[in-house]
Amino acid sequence: MKAVVLNGVTPAKTVALSKVEIPKARPGWVLVKVKAFGMNHSEQILRLHEIENDYIQKPIIPGIECVGEIADASDSGFQTGQRVAALMGGMGRSFDGSYAEYALLPAHHVFPVESSLTWAQLGAVPETYFTAWGSLSEGLDLQPSDTLLIRGATCALGYAAIQIGKACGCRVIATTHREQKLPLIDSADEAVLDTGKLSGLLSGVTKALELVGPKTLSDTLRCMEKGGIVCDTGILGGVYALNGFDPIKSIPNGVYLTGFHSNWPTGEVMRELFAFLEEKGLEPCVGAVYDFKDIRGACMAQDSGKVNGKIVVTV
Question: Cα separation of 300 and 296, whole Å?
Answer without folding.
Answer: 6
